[in-house]
Amino acid sequence: MSDEEHHFDSQADAGASKTYPQQAGTIRKNGYIVIKSRPCKVVEVSTSKTGKHGHAKCHFVAIDIFNGKKLEDIVPSSHNCDVPHVNRTDYQLIDISEDGFVSLLTDNGSTKDDLKLPTDDALLTQIKEGFAEGKDLVVSVMSAMGEEQICSLKDIGPKN
Questions:
Q1: Rounded to 5 degrees, what are φ and ψ at 130?
Q2: E strands, the chain, where?
Q3: Cβ contacts of 107 within 8 Å, gap of 6 or more
Q4: Contact between 135 and 103 (Cβ < 8 Å)
Q5: 134 against 1, higher pLDDT
Q6: Mean of the per-residue pLDDT values for the chain?
Q7: What gap in Å lies between CA 116 and CA 151, rounded to an integer?
Q8: What is the largest CA-CA distance in the chain?
Q9: Positive or negative: CA dihedral 89, 13, 112, 149
Q10: Which CATH number describes the domain made up of 86-155?
Q11: Is the pLDDT score of 114 beyond 50?
Q12: For the domain with range 19-84, which CATH number is right: 3.40.1010.20, 3.30.1330.30, 2.30.30.30, 3.20.20.70?
């Protein structure tokens, strides 16, 4: 054994899974589900009655939380579905670079420089205009299954 001290300044989740199982029959509208390996927000759930051969089935209609595509899946209600761990974090916007990356201030005072501007045109325009006007902007970043994206914006007033 070595007598060195080891320090880990990791913000990771100790190698935990990106998803967890949940019974299909318990997933509701506005919940999350993984369809075709994509994290999605459920917009519609319909359950069929048990048929001649057993299981009731859940029909999920969901929207991909990162690219907005509509996905559907049909699962027996007694089976497990994967549900993504979805986190939402607020960061203060510091800078926007010419190559489309943003510089964000984290809670511990360091910067996060690995996020691109969102692809949603309305949000992109709001961020660029607000930043050009010198406003203090806070962006919400949604992360799930190893992906991150800016999903909303708050104006906390003009810079002093």
A1: -60, -40
A2: 19-23, 32-35, 38-47, 57-64, 70-76, 80-84, 86-96, 101-105, 111-116, 135-144, 147-158
A3: none
A4: no
A5: 134
A6: 83
A7: 12
A8: 69
A9: negative
A10: 2.40.50.140
A11: yes
A12: 2.30.30.30
Beta-ladder partners of 153 = 139
Indicate the pairing of strand 32-35 with strand 19-23: unpaired
Q: Which among 104, 91, 106, 97 has a CA at the least distance from the CA of 139?
A: 91
Domain map (residue ranges) of the chain: 19-84, 86-155
Nearest alpha carbon to residue 36 among 12, 77, 66, 16: 66
What are the pLDDT digits (tens) for 26-74?
999 999 999 999 999 999 999 988 877 777 899 999 999 988 899 999 9
